[in-house]
Specification:
Blueprint (H helix, E strand, L loop, with lengths): L3 H4 E4 L2 E4 L7 H24 L2 H18 L11 H17 L3
Antiparallel strand pairs: 1-2
């Protein structure tokens, strides 16, 4: 059973869902790399005032965070197989999008 403090972390009084701790290191590395690039793309699109690029970048952030288990169905409510599949699908989707 996963304890409450293993599910969330608190930063500046705000509670955030932790990434799924069962994901393989290579998958986490790929997803966090895509997440960082997508967040950078969000900043650049905001500066440029490019709404289409902003929407695309935010979509990539969402896919990466879902893959990590930080958004969508809580990872502790899914089977390990479903969690692994969700993460791998996110990596594939991000790599296909060129993000």
């Amino acid at each position: 059973m996963v304890e409450e403090d293993e599910r969330f972390l608190v930063v500046n009084g705000r509670r955030w869902r932790r990434a799924d701790p069962s994901l393989p290191d290579d998958v986490v590395s790929a997803l966090t790399s895509h997440l960082g690039r997508a967040r950078n793309a969000v900043k650049q699109a905001k500066r440029a005032g490019d709404e289409d690029a902003l929407a695309s970048a935010r979509g990539r952030v969402q896919v990466a965070k879902v893959g990590l288990g930080e958004r969508s169905d809580p990872w502790w409510e899914l089977s390990e197989e479903a969690r692994q599949e969700r993460a791998r699908e996110a990596v594939e989707q991000l790599e296909e999008s060129g993000g």
